[in-house]
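Hi, here's the filled form for the chain we discussed.

Project: internal
Contact: R.S.
Residues: 134
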Amino acid sequence: MSRTQVIVYNGDDGFCNVVIPSDQCVLSDVDIISKDVPAAEYALISHTELPTTLFRNAWKYNHSSSTVDVEIASAKVITIQILESRYLANEKENEEITRVANMRGESPSLIDNPSVPYSTITSETSVSGLLGLL
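And the returned structure, exactly as it came back:
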């Protein structure tokens, strides 16, 4: 197996697992699969065919097409988590900026902190649309 290929299959949780053989591995494809892949449905694909790792926890292996796709519902949850985390981090940063500015008797220059667009995320139908929100 060219080491640019990975083995993909769905785990017990229904989401995609990826086996990345080491360049130093001397095992054959068959040996690696029999040792490390517990599923009957799997594929060898190029690592370049994997979707964005931003939504790694939303990957699903589609055996009929031998592709790894992003499950949109899970990607929406991940998008919300990322945006909420950014929002809270900016809030914390703005609190510190305000405290320092008050201490100095200055006006604070706050970080722009848009609210999380929940309705936009909920209505989004594509991975690229979700990526655009990030």
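Let me know if anything looks off before we file it.
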